[in-house]
Structures are given as C-alpha cells and as structure tokens.
Amino acid sequence: NADFQSMEITDQAQLALSGAALARCSNKFEFTLIGHDLQMVEVVLHPSEKIIAESGSICFLESDIDFETQFNDGSRPSGSWWANIKDAGKRMLAGASLAMLHIVNNGTKPRKIVFSSPIPGQTLGIDLGALGGSIMCSRHAFLCAAMGTSIQVGFSQSLGVGFFGGEGFILQKLEGDGLVFVHACGAVIKRELVAGEVLRIDSGCVVGFSANVNFSIARVGSIKTSLFGGEGIFFATLTGPGTVWIQSVPFRRFAMTLYGEMPKPSSSSSGGKGDR
C-alpha cells in the first residue's frame, strides 16, 4: 500500500475561514462566528447587499433588513414560475427547504442579521471559488451563502449509493464562486486527501467534500461483521485528491438517541383519549 501523506486539521479554530484564505474569496460578506458548540453566524450587510439562507435559520435581525421566501435559489434573481418550482423540488430531494430566504439591507447603514444552526456542533465557512466552484455536502447542512450560490441535489456516482448509503444517499450540491456556511453535528475533522488516497467513513459522518473527490459505497468486512458489527452494511468510500470534512456525530444517530430518551405516552392515557 502507498504511504499517503494527507493533511489533517482537528483544531476547530484552524477550521475557520480567515486571514489570507478569506481575503482571496471573491464573493464574500462580513461575518463573525459566535460560540463554540452551538454556534451562530453574525452577518453585517451593507446597504443593498444581499445574501440567501435556509428557511427557519434566522435568529434575529436589525431594522432595514428585509427578507422574503422565493422558490429560486441565489444563482439567479428571478425565473419562470415553472423553472423555480422544479428547482425547489430538486432542493427538497436534497434535504433543503422548498423555499429559500432572500435577504437584503434596504437601509442606508450597515445592519446585522444572525443565523443559528438547529443542531449542536460546528459551523464552517467555505470559499467555493477556492475549491473549484462547488462542493457536495450532507442533507440539511446548508445554512447561508453569498448571492449567486446554487443549492441543488447532487446524486452520487453509482446506483448502489441510493440503495445502501443511508444519509449519504442524496447529497446537496453547492455551486458558485463565493462564501457559504454549512453546519455539522459535533466536532469536525478536515482531511486533505492526496491523489489515490482512500478514506472509508460512516455515511452519516460525512459533512461534505470537494467536487474532485470520488464518492462511492463499499461493504465493510464480512457478512457477519456487516450484520452484527453495529456499523451498517456499507460505508462511504471517498478517494482523493480533494478536501473532506467529517463530523463526529451522525445527525440521524443524534436524533434517534434523543427520541429514545423522550417520555412516551402510556397506553392508559391513549386509551383514555379514545374513550372521550
């Protein structure tokens, strides 16, 4: 086996898009990341500046900032009714909302708007232009982005992914030349894979990867290991070169754990309702 020398970043502070890397971003907006495990993104919009965001992601906003829901994403300001409906349907398949928030500062002074993630974890700023113009990311990962960003469904390369990939079956494709924010569940590891390097990941732990990374599904171990090892039958297999972001907690596992701890209605109470 080849001795691959990939780069791994585990320091959450180093994952932030800042300094020279942020300066090189051609389509960006002013922002501040607030918090650690339950982060918010505070955005400063200058007069007439526009961005897009996932529906339901706004925490608070100052006066003069207006928003409206539209079926088209940020890749075009308008479009035919039928084209917008088709795009919205594709986004729903990828786990995004039917409508996107189009946000603008209609005032004469800079104003703030804050977005929050619905899950505990890290929020990542990514320059799409620096990664070839697009990335693939997990369902429900998108938070907000610069105007001009397209959010669509991105299908994996083989049909087997659709049958066995779980959370990795359908992926969002974020396309554009500017700044986007995605959120992850738990801590995040960033891996820079070299050409030919293979990484196998629980499909629910994949936050996203650059478009030049090859994504497929492979069975893990023997049949007995697959059925009784507690790791599922198939893992996502990612082959470099390219960038991969990995989250420590699959969102589905986190949600099911919470659901398992929630109090359940007793049979007597449900029966009582039926007698009324």
Helix content: 10-25%
Task: List the uncertain runs.
Answer: 156-168
Query: Into which percentage range does the β-strand content fall?
Result: 35-45%
What is the averaged pLDDT score?
81
Radius of gyration from the alpha-carbon trace, in angstroms: 20 Å
Number of helices: 6
Main sheet record: 7 strands, antiparallel
Oligomerization status of the protein chains: single chain
Order of helices and strands: EHEEEEEHEEEEEEHEEEEEEHEEHH
| Counted beta strands | 20
Shape: globular
Strand order of the largest sheet: 1-15-20-17-10-13-12
Distance between the termini: 69 Å
Structural class: alpha+beta
Give the arrangement of secondary structure elements.
Layout: E1 7-9, H1 19-23, E2 30-34, E3 40-45, E4 50-54, E5 58-61, E6 65-70, H2 81-93, E7 100-105, E8 111-116, E9 123-127, E10 134-137, E11 142-146, E12 150-155, H3 160-164, E13 170-175, E14 179-183, E15 188-193, E16 198-201, E17 206-210, E18 214-219, H4 223-228, E19 234-239, E20 242-247, H5 251-261, H6 267-275
Antiparallel strand pairs: 1-15, 2-3, 3-8, 4-7, 4-11, 5-8, 6-7, 9-14, 10-13, 10-17, 11-14, 12-13, 15-20, 16-19, 17-20, 18-19
